[in-house]
Design brief:
8-stranded mixed beta sheet, 26 helices
């Protein structure tokens, strides 16, 4: 076919074949009958047919002038790949009733070619807006395996002219764009294509040619859905674009399609390139050609769809795709081509070219006199300064310069000053420049021969291998050529007696590096914008955070049963209110940390702790005011009669002590607890814990003095419906009656925290407490997770049931992360323990612990955090419940205040737990800046228990991100 021929072909409408026509063809030509559905196509007609016995096929109809030989090449390629072990799954061509695999047929005067293929089961990737890194990498690997399978495939039909052949992208796109009526839009599409062709032209002769599918896209890849909901690419369909073409162009087509799923970030495709390159290594020339080819593909896609809609306006397939093709084009052109080339070379392991040798920019500068300032997450400068203040960087630099006369920020530093507390992606924190504060009249000289040009508030010195960008308050030389050593600028007074300038380097003459970039782009930008240390003569580089092997070190020496969140956890080193910050300056919304009741990094608490540490810290056997004052305040929070306090180190210790108190007070050992409960890790607290999520052997390893009863879960428990509460209560009462006077006590959380904040049935605790006490037993309310104001509607969980326990255990948030817990009981029960000896807890009642406890109570009161838990918590719960109206995966929302549980189920009738999906959703939320973890015996409940200072804006961000995950996938 001539080049003009295939250009004309690109403008043809699809064959005029109806569903009725397809039924006649399938029956008469191929002997197949069944239910028919039309599938989308740009220039062909495709129909899926499902027979009565469940077999599925695809009827493909194209114009006859597409050529018999080209179709025969497609069939031969599919058979070739199908015979290869380990190759991707592909359709199989089938024969007509008279033994042909390609049939020519006149349909109302239009000559068409017909084929029947097996239908490849699976889910197209195109339906999923978000594709995770694993899926993207798997798609790259699949594309490589397909290329390997086709490497030795030959056929005469592969040498053909095709509009999609990226070797012809320039003339094809320009031809298609020629008819666009809007000149501005035409130029917007054409300019990037021209730039891509310029970069591609010197590389093209070195690009390998072989048989390529040339359309391994999200539309043409079918995937298997894992239990978690993730998609695993397994098969490839639609061989209509197969030809002999550039090998790397095949990968370019795949990568361009992935830009539709990149959330605006072209770097999202890098895992596909890395996976492809690992299986089928590309040459340096191919790696450099890859991004220009992606840009070219994006342009051809848009241009072709614009033209196709002009000639076939009823083509729903094209109309449905054009918006995401425009998105592909926009994302492909959202970053400089040089940056993407650097990123691709970086991910492929190609070393950067060595830096040129240059002279000093500031000959008079004494490197030893320069003080660098630390703007990282771990900087001590932020202990007395607000790292989010608008001019904090300049203020800290100015303060350092006043001490030494010379100060600098650091290159390659992840600046906490550039973080954003609520953002679904990492902010631009990585510094590609430095700021210098120098004495007035400090002279800058050219470190290499070059040409000066004015730009914005500074100058650019461009040499043969490097460009130097200098801006700020300064006098500058005139524009034009200069030699190395010539004066180019001098600092002027910026108003503070110093001269402040910004300095950056670039290896691309026409590219101005940004001042900062996202961490994911840092490695690529470093190849383009190297450290200014090259021209300064002193080390201005920030040390790398050093977190690459930190997890390995942790696992080597930190006992393995002490698990960490996430497979690839961020290294968190700072917190503020409900936000946590990692070493790359990214902020995460902490929605799971009920330890920090009043929020992270509270200045009032830090000051109180520091003051008390500077005065005294010892143990509670000494006499000091804080332990008496704190115990008095805790007793004042409890119901009348519970006036005696034990101070301990943790919730586990508190529950352990509560069990011992029940034994001592009753003179018996048997304790009734609830199934699915978690109470701690000491011997006694673990004994009454029955959650299999925390201990898979819990149900078979309880000591004989522990008697669990069915958890009264009204949503998914043993009993449901109107009388479920009564039946749960009767079960518990039966166990209490069975134990009789051998019963020591009963323990449970008044709101079922470990299962996600589930409320107990109305009247449950009153009946049980009465029965326990009638047998001489003690009632223990474990408030470690749910109490202390977290429920918002009451300070204690037991208040929701209208009961008063005999013993209250509390910990977690009462110390805001400091090891502090308490047991509150009556004097009579407390004194019973003394018959067995003294009790002592090393740090539970120390001066520092007591001051921390009182400060937390002060902040709870003064900042109205209990009221905030109610107001924001109720708002948050209403928004979460609204998600259930859109997403069937949402089963129900448990809890109240800021102890909530969002339960995911695969089926709202059977309540099959969506365990794998919940874990995957938590991982996706982390990508979007939210820390969340699953809970419950099935690990299918989001455990929502943030600091009580949670702002409404933060609650909205959490729900917005969760809604996005549920809508886009994970």
């Amino acid at each position: 076919m001539t080049e003009q021929g295939f250009l004309d072909q690109a403008e043809r409408a699809r064959p005029a074949v109806t569903m009725e026509d397809a039924a006649v063809i399938l029956d008469g030509v191929f002997g197949v009958r069944g239910r028919i559905v039309e599938l989308g196509s740009q220039q062909d007609r495709n129909f899926r047919v499902e027979t009565e016995d469940g077999r599925r096929f695809v009827l493909k109809v194209c114009h006859a002038d597409y050529g018999f030989q080209a179709l025969d090449a497609q069939n031969a390629a599919m058979r070739h790949i199908g015979a290869r072990s380990g190759a991707p799954a592909v359709p199989t061509p089938l024969l007509s009733v008279d033994g042909r695999d390609i049939v020519e047929l006149d349909i109302r005067g239009e000559l068409c070619l017909l084929r029947l293929l097996t239908y490849l089961d699976g889910e197209p990737l195109t339906r999923r807006m978000h594709l995770g890194e694993e899926t993207i990498a798997a798609l790259g690997a699949l594309a490589a395996e397909l290329s390997l399978a086709l490497a030795d495939f030959t056929h005469p039909g592969l040498d053909r002219a095709l509009q999609w052949d990226l070797r012809r992208a320039g003339p094809v796109a320009l031809h298609l764009l020629s008819s666009l009526p809007d000149p501005q839009r035409k130029r917007r599409l054409a300019d990037p294509l021209v730039a891509a062709m310029r970069r591609l032209q010197p590389l093209s002769a070195a690009l390998r040619v072989q048989a390529v599918h040339h359309d391994v896209t999200d539309d043409n890849v079918v995937a298997r859905r894992e239990k978690s909901g993730r998609l695993v690419p397994e098969g490839v369909i639609d061989f209509g674009d197969i030809l002999n073409g550039w090998l790397v162009a095949d990968l370019a087509v795949t990568c361009a399609a992935l830009l539709h799923h990149a959330d605006g970030d072209p770097f999202a495709i890098l895992p596909a390139i890395a996976a492809y390159h690992a299986r089928l290594p590309l040459t340096v020339e191919e790696l450099k050609a890859l991004w220009p080819l992606i840009v070219a593909r994006a342009t051809v896609l848009v241009a072709s769809s614009e033209r196709q809609l002009a000639v076939d306006p009823d083509n729903d397939y094209v109309a449905g795709n054009i918006d995401h093709e425009r998105l592909i084009f926009d994302v492909a052109n959202s970053v400089p081509m040089a940056l993407m080339e650097a990123a691709i070379l970086q991910v492929a392991g190609v070393a950067a070219a060595p830096l040129p040798s240059v002279a000093s920019l500031i000959p008079s500068l004494d490197p030893a006199a320069v003080q660098t300032i630390d703007l990282s997450t771990t900087s001590t400068a932020f202990e007395a300064a607000d790292f989010l203040a608008p001019r904090i960087e300049e203020e800290l630099l100015d303060a350092a310069a006043r001490r030494t006369g010379h100060a600098a920020t650091r290159y390659g530093e992840y600046r906490l000053t550039r973080t954003a507390p609520i953002l679904p992606h990492a902010p631009e924190t990585f510094a590609l420049h430095i700021m210098l504060s120098l004495p007035v009249d400090t002279l800058f000289v050219a470190p290499f021969d070059g040409t000066i040009a004015f730009r914005d508030d500074g100058i650019v010195l461009t040499g043969p291998d490097l460009a130097l960008h200098l801006s700020g308050r300064m006098r500058t030389a005139a524009e034009g050529p200069v030699t190395a050593g010539s004066a180019i600028a001098a600092t002027e007074d910026d108003g503070g007696g110093q001269g402040m300038v910004r300095l950056a380097l670039s290896r691309e003459a026409d590219l101005v590096p940004p001042l900062l970039t996202r961490p994911s782009r840092a490695a690529a930008w470093k190849r383009i914008a190297p450290s200014p240390a090259l021209v300064l003569g002193f080390d201005c580089d920030a040390p790398a955070p050093g977190n690459e092997n930190l997890l390995e070190r942790r696992q080597r020496h930190f006992a393995r049963p002490q698990k960490n969140y996430y497979r690839k956890p961020p290294q968190i080193e700072r917190g503020l209110r409900e936000h946590m910050f990692d070493v790359e300056g990214r902020s995460f919304l902490d929605m799971v940390n009920n330890v920090t009741t009043i929020g992270h990094g509270h200045p009032r608490l830090a000051a109180a702790v520091g003051r008390q540490w500077s005065m005294l810290n010892t143990n509670s056997r000494f006499h000091y005011a804080a332990v008496a004052e704190f115990s008095e305040r805790l007793a004042g929070l409890a119901p009348e009669g519970l006036d005696t306090v034990f101070l301990v180190n943790s919730g586990s210790e508190a529950v352990d002590l509560a069990v011992r108190l029940a034994w001592a007070a009753s003179g018996r050992r048997n304790i009734v607890s609830l199934l699915e409960a978690y109470h701690g890790w000491t011997v006694a607290s673990d004994a009454v814990s029955t959650s299999i999520a925390d201990n898979p052997q819990a149900l078979t390893t309880r000591p004989d003095w522990v008697h669990p009863v069915t958890s009264p879960n009204l949503y998914r428990g043993k009993y449901r419906g109107a009388d479920a509460g009564r039946r749960y209560t009767e079960d518990a009462l039966a166990k209490i009656e069975e134990l009789g006077d051998r019963l020591a006590g009963f323990i449970c959380e008044p709101v079922y925290g470990n299962a996600g904040g589930i409320s107990l049935p109305e009247g449950y605790l009153p009946a049980i407490y009465e029965a326990v006490r009638s047998k001489g037993g003690v009632c223990i309310a474990d408030e470690v997770q749910v109490g202390y104001g977290r429920l918002g509607h009451s300070f204690w969980g037991f208040e929701q049931q209208g009961v008063v326990p005999d013993i209250i255990t509390v910990a977690k948030g009462m110390g805001n992360g400091h090891p502090l817990g308490a047991v509150i009981t009556s004097r009579k029960i407390a004194d019973a323990l003394e018959r067995e000896g003294y009790f002592f807890s090393s740090s539970g009642g120390s001066p520092v612990s007591a001051v921390i406890g009182m400060t937390v109570l002060d902040v709870l009161r003064d900042e109205r955090l209990v009221e905030n838990a109610r107001e924001v918590g109720d708002y948050l719960k209403a928004r979460l419940e609204a998600l259930g109206q859109r997403f069937p995966l949402v089963g129900t929302v448990h809890g109240m205040g800021l102890y909530l549980g969002l339960e995911f189920v695969r089926d709202r009738e059977t309540l099959e737990p969506a365990t794998e999906e919940t874990a995957a959703i938590c991982d996706r939320l982390l990508d979007l800046g939210v820390i969340m973890q699953p809970t419950g015996d099935h690990l299918n409940v989001l455990k929502i228990k943030p600091p009580l200072c949670l702002a409404k804006e933060s609650a909205d961000f959490f729900v917005d991100m969760l809604e996005r995950v549920l809508a886009e996938g994970w």
